[in-house]
Amino acid sequence: MTSHEAAPGDPRQLPGGAPARAAARVTSRDVARAAGVSQAAVSLVLGDKWRGRVSPGKAEVVRTVARELGYRPNLAARSLRTGRTRTALLVVPALTTEFFARVYTGAARLAADHDFGVVLYPSPEGTGVAPSPFDSASAALDGVIASSMAADALAALRGAGLPLVMLDSDPDDPTAAAAVNLDIADGARQLATHLTGLGHRRITHLAADVESWTFAVRARALADVLADVPGAVLRRQPSALGVDAGRRAAHAALTAPGPRPTALLCDDDIIAAGACKAARRLGLRIPQDVSVTGFDDLALAVAVEPELTTVRLPAEEFGEAGMRALMAVLDGAPVEAATLPVALVPRGSTAPPPDAGHNAARPGG
Amino acid sequence: MTSHEAAPGDPRQLPGGAPARAAARVTSRDVARAAGVSQAAVSLVLGDKWRGRVSPGKAEVVRTVARELGYRPNLAARSLRTGRTRTALLVVPALTTEFFARVYTGAARLAADHDFGVVLYPSPEGTGVAPSPFDSASAALDGVIASSMAADALAALRGAGLPLVMLDSDPDDPTAAAAVNLDIADGARQLATHLTGLGHRRITHLAADVESWTFAVRARALADVLADVPGAVLRRQPSALGVDAGRRAAHAALTAPGPRPTALLCDDDIIAAGACKAARRLGLRIPQDVSVTGFDDLALAVAVEPELTTVRLPAEEFGEAGMRALMAVLDGAPVEAATLPVALVPRGSTAPPPDAGHNAARPGG
DNA sequence: GCCAGGGCGTGTTACGTATAACTTGTGGCG
DNA sequence: CGCCACAAGTTATACGTAACACGCCCTGGC
Asked: What gap in Å lies between CA A225 and CA A188, rounded to an integer?
């Protein structure tokens, strides 16, 4: 019954020796001894730098022995020697957002294919983690992928001198080594065109009350489209993020003085879900009395009734592209500023407005 | 007078030297030189092991100089020396699940307070990451926190000999160093009692089609409660995870031969959202015609109409408790097997059954 | 007057790896 | 025949840190 009682058989008594780990690690020297070569040869072979330095036969022996012994390189030692960690930091506004969880997933998947790791740094507003990523992150970092939404963390990042890839940043602010963007403007244009095509003219934009390029560009694109539609009236109702905030904002929009909007164009699916609740509580049917649109195409979009017309963002691909760009920067390769396409997903929450017969044909006015 | 006065800012040209990094790192030796002490003294002071070895005055000087120079210890070197990485691995079935994102957040927050880091390993089914966490994770690990839902990754973990804390594991399977559980059984009992208290007798359990203790225990607890209620009939309808799977399962349950169930008790909120859609498409009102309950209390629970009666799981605290247990194990401290309480959250998706007047014992309901 | 002992520090070493620099044997070629 | 290029290795070294093993000085007790 000696479960907890670790036998204290003297591990190492060498002066300055490190405390012995539970399982004696297999080192490259062990492999070298077993294979009858020097440690340097092992390093060369396993590092795939043996061409012209080690004979193919011995290289094969080394690989075989390493596998049989279950050798795993000590990453701390490697990092100490090379100065690289093969670890990237992903800075997101809040992990509990499904969108950023998917961005992480994509980045981590691609990273794993290249023996890279990804650690997360949700910025303070979301989670209360310490303000400086470099105090709290236990890993040393080769580079950073940062969402432009994580505004408060960016200041600390800029000063750190780390290779930086920005996700969805303002193209006019080229402080980053590279940038990857979603074609948010196109998504917003498609939504606006979809609604005006159905006949909507009085549209209220439930605008996320967050200072970020990704939201600013929506507003601009909407205004651009509606400016070309005779008789279209675009109003703006600010909303915080979250279901309840969306509900309150939609209530305000739907009860504002003047003619009621026939469509609520929401900055994300979560706000849209709240908007649906507000409409229903006012006795309005969706989409017969009022159309509602979202943005992002989260799982939530098909969980509500009716399912949301929204814009699908390729979140995993977004994370992958960010990671790819970072690895390119680290390799010193030229970085391609990528813009990923998005797609309108029409569902049940949009329909022609109730007064479509009168309004759609009316020219101007 | 030190004879080895290296030219400052001069990249090393010594044989075997590591490639110069872009930003010249400040090392403990730099701090030592600037503070007029030895490197050993710096290590002692900053490691808070200086009592009786360094005078308080010099210790203060060292701390000040370190701060002024912006010294940050090289974590790779420290790990190489100590054999510890201060990094834990959190194994979850799928990060895109809001529940596990919150678990991660809690674990990471507590970890940061103790200079620990947390890296994620979403198991393959969720994300397609490589099957072995130790091939893909770029960080060496001190220990693992694993959800019992990540069943396929557990086999690899057991063999690794790493300290392991299990989240929501079967208490009868004590292979882990420590275990932290949610009181799932109590939550299920509260739900069942809530429904029978409202008068429901024909209840169908939309049971997640996943082999995991957390789901198995729900079924057992429900059966226990309903066995004590005269006339209660509990049926079981398996369902995969996801909104659409829940919708299909609920459709099957509501159109099965025999009297229709008056309540659908779903294994999580997402299945419940699907169940609501199925009911509505069959022309049934919620909760007047059929009650629906969820589990987890995700953001989704209040995004749907009506809002879901569900069981709130303290996800962040769960992650915190797991991390706390792991750190205790690493310290060799005794581990307290924690069980965290859960709470029923009654909302709009439950009400007395339509035939409550006939069926329930209480008059005038 | 001398030694014990504690306070205050420094010198040195090893962690495991990657790679520059060196060594040795062999064949080709002027 | 002498020399060089090249293959096939090995040796040595440094990355930055933590901590062991000593030294030195001062104080106090006998």
From this structure: 9
CB contact B101 to A (< 8 Å)? yes
56-75 of A, contacting B, C-beta below 8 A: 72, 74-75
Number of domains in chain A: 3
User: Does one domain contain both B306 and B333?
Assistant: no
Cβ B138–A115 below 8 Å, yes or no?
A: yes
SS3 state at B261: coil
Asked if residue A234 and residue A304 are part of one domain, the reply reads: yes
Tell which residue, B248, B212, B218, has the closest CA to residue B234. B218
Tell if the pTM clears 0.85, that is, is over it: yes
Determine contact: B22 vs chain A, CB below 8 A.
yes
Residue B53 belongs to domain spanning: 15-72
DSSP A161: T
Is residue B349 domain-resident? Answer: no
Taking the C-alpha atoms of residue A247 and residue A252, their distance in angstroms, rounded to an integer, is 9
Closest B-chain CA to A98: B96
Which nucleotide is nearest, taking the CA of residue A12 and each C1'?
A: C14
Chain A residue numbers with beta carbons less than 8 Å from the beta carbon of B326 are none
Task: Tell me the nt nearest to B72, Cα to C1'.
Answer: D16
Say if residues A344 and A191 touch (Cβ distance below 8 Å).
Answer: yes
* A100 and A112 co-located in one domain: yes
**Is residue A339 within 8 Å of A181, Cβ to Cβ?**
yes
Q: Is residue B86 within 8 angstroms of chain A, CB to CB? A: yes
Cβ B292 vs Cβ B203: under 8 Å = no
Query: Could you report the per-residue pLDDT of A244-291, keeping only the tens digit for each?
Result: 999 999 999 999 999 999 999 999 999 999 999 999 999 999 999 999
Amino acid present at B283: G
Does a structural domain hold residue A121?
A: yes
Distances (CA, A) of A120 to A90, A287, B129, B226: 5, 39, 17, 44
Q: D18 C1' – A263 CA distance, angstroms?
A: 65
Residue B286 lies in a domain: yes
| A212 CA vs D29 C1’ separation (Å) | 75
Q: Tell me if chain A has a CB within 8 Å of the CB of B247.
A: no
User: Within this chain, do residues B210 and B298 fall inside the same structural domain, yes or no?
Assistant: yes
What distance in Å separates the CA atoms of residue B57 and residue A226, rounded to the nearest whole number? 70
| Per-residue pLDDT at A155 | 67
B151 has a chain A CB within 8 A of its CB: no
User: In terms of domains, do A194 and A149 share one?
Assistant: no
Per-residue model confidence as pLDDT tens digits over A12-70: 333 333 333 345 689 999 999 999 999 999 999 999 999 889 999 999 999 999 999 99
- Kindly give, in sequence order, each residue whose CB lies less than 8 Å from that of residue A24, ignoring residues fewer than 6 positions away: none
CATH number, domain of A323, equals 3.40.50.2300
Return d(Cα A135, Cα A130) in angstroms, integer. 8
Condensed to tens digits (0 to 9), the pLDDT of residues B303-332 reads 999 999 999 999 999 999 999 999 999 988
Same domain, B319 and B178: yes
Whether A117 and B129 lie within 8 Å, measured CB to CB: no
Which among B23, B76, B126 is the nearest to A79, CB-wise?
B76
Contact between chains at B74 and A105 (C-beta distance less than 8 A)? no
Residue B63 shares a structural domain with residue B113: no
Residues B219 and B249 grouped into a single domain? yes
If DSSP states are collapsed to H, E and C, what string results for A205-262?
Answer: EEEECCCCHHHHHHHHHHHHHHHCCCCCEEEEEEECCCHHHHHHHHHHHHCCCCCCCC
- Token pair listed for B1: 């007078």
